[in-house]
TrEMBL record:
CDD domains: Trans_IPPS_HT (cd00685). This is Polyprenyl synthetase family protein. Its cofactor is Mg(2+). Belongs to the FPP/GGPP synthase family. GO terms for biological process: isoprenoid biosynthetic process. It comes from the Bacteria. Keywords: Magnesium, Metal-binding, Transferase. One of its GO terms (molecular function) is metal ion binding.
Amino acid sequence: MRSKDSAKVCICNVVSMPLRVRHIVKIFGRSRSPCGKYFPLARMWTTKPIGYTEIMRFDLNGFRHEVTQFMQGKLATVPWPTTDSASEQYAQFTAPLESFIASGKRTRALFLAAGWQTAAPQRLQGSASLPIKAGSAVEFFQAAALVHDDIIDNASSRRGFDSVHVNFAKRHQAQNLGGSSAHYGLSSAILLGDFLVSISSHIFEKAEAISLEAHAQARSLFHSMTAEVAFGQFLDNRAQYTPLDADPTALVRNAFAVLLHKSARYSVEVPLLIGATLAGCDDDHRQVLSTVGCPLGEAFQLRDDVLGVFGDPRVTGKPSGGDLIEGKRTVLIGLALQRATPAQIQLLQSVLGTQMDATQIDTVREIISDSGAYAEHDRLIQEREELAYQELERKNLDSPLLFALLEELANRTA
């Protein structure tokens, strides 16, 4: 008789399986990575998806590289007339972005390109015709959102590098400038984030589009997205001031609102809609993409919240247990507060949002796992990914890029 542990499959082993094998594999239980952290299981296709034969032919990294090159080129030149002295200061202003821009996964640009691919004429669906400018615009906005997010969260690192405000503070010290290095870092990072928002909008004005009407519709979606993220960021900021002894059911409900407006829609659903709209799609097509993008975006952020607690910092580029130290009121934490024992709840309330040591972080992880919160959270992810796949198959959407993206996201560990 098999032990329970024998039913667990390491996600790294799953990822290494040939794609055709993974289509028929069904895995039960939860998986462990080699470092002992729990991750949601990858979603397994039980049938060949539409566009299956093209999945491995689409070069995700090639598109990422093109977007990154475009972004780096835009930052390399001062975008307005200036003096030599100011040009030198411009280089100082954008210097903290060098590693930041080079290391992005370009998820939002890829979903925008996937949306384009679902709606564009056949001649414009190939990798050579994808909307690089539009993709770069959403990535510049993503960079702005992260710069400001790290300030709000007082996060010291991002993607394995110093966060932008910390980078500015260290430059202040290295250049022997007067005053507070911390304040200089924060104020400079706020300005750089504002600059990135402006640059993203400027680039989107010149984004690829099938027609002027399509561009106008997509532009409206783009600006609505940037406003919604600011609101979502406010919801997240406000949630951090909600007492942990509040009703955990309300905490979960509020966490889903944060998840939707701060991340889920702008990470997946809206980029899909923008890309398809640039390609000239109609309202019915946008509705179809929303039925795929909304649950997938929620799954994307729910998975990200798991990585914020259980992720390996060598892979995620973020501090171990960072979301616990920041006291993030995520769905995962809300579920743990719903299911933990009174003693465990008291412990969670006393340590979340403090400078926890490694032992305390491991204790909180065990509570999340043993209480059943982890399993329920994983079910929520699987439920949403399954819904997205079902809608894709039912609506017969033709986008090799979209299927390649879904495969990648379901198996990500960072």
